[in-house]
Every structure is written in C-alpha cells, then in structure tokens.
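A quick aside before the break. I want you to see a complete sequence-to-structure record at least once, exactly as it would be stored in a machine-readable document. Don't worry about memorizing anything.
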Amino acid sequence: QVQLVESGGGLVQPGGSLRLSCAASGFNSDLWNIGWFRQAPGKEREGVSCITKNDGTTYYADSVKGRFTISRDSAKGTVYLQMNNLTPEDTGKYYCARAFRPSECADLNRNRNMFGSWGQGTQVTVSS
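That is the input. The structure line, written in tokens, reads:
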C-alpha cells in the first residue's frame, strides 16, 4: 500500500526550529518528486518546498527561502524538512505528497493537483 506519513510537528516558540519527516512506504520514494505543503486555518493549502527525483533539485516558496531546507535519505525512504527561525506565520498543518514529473516541483501551487498520496499531516504551531 502506497503511503506517506508525516511526523515531527509540535509547538515551538518564534525563532525555534523543527524537523519534519515524511516517511514513504509501499513504493520507492527515490523515483518520485516529494513536496511539502502547509495549510493554515481558513487558508488554502500552499506549497512550501519540493525535492526532485534523480538529481535532487530543490525548490522553496519565497516565504521560507533561507530558513527551510528539504533533504532526502534514500536508505530510510524519508524526506525531511528542516525548519529554522520559525515565525507565527509558519503555523499550520504540514503535508507531504508525491508527483511524477520533476517540472511539477517547480511551481507547487500551480501543480498542487498533480501531487497525490497525501499523508495525514503534522501540526506545527509557532507561538510564544
């Protein structure tokens, strides 16, 4: 069964860090592009970051560039999202999903519907 499971969320103070994990099962995640998305209450789901299959090119939303880092551990079948210098605007439920074409990573919001096998999400709350 194809599955993506997110973990690592929690409550953190502004300026703090979290590392989210997206664990894949039932398929070889190295053959897929993996994207991270987030959704705040009352807002649309937005793309945060993506890593392509093959060469591991990474993409980031402007709002997280320089603060978030996406990476892949092929041996564990897991994609990570390291989030530093968090702000209250980063609060939301974070989801990972997969897409087949590398071009779909380049514009996550436009290509959101091309992503599938969504996980259940992990909640990130940034608050003092």
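Two observations worth writing down. The chain has a mean pLDDT of 95. The beta strands are 3-7, 10-12, 18-25, 33-39, 46-51, 58-60, 68-73, 78-83, 92-99, 122-126. We'll return to this after the break.
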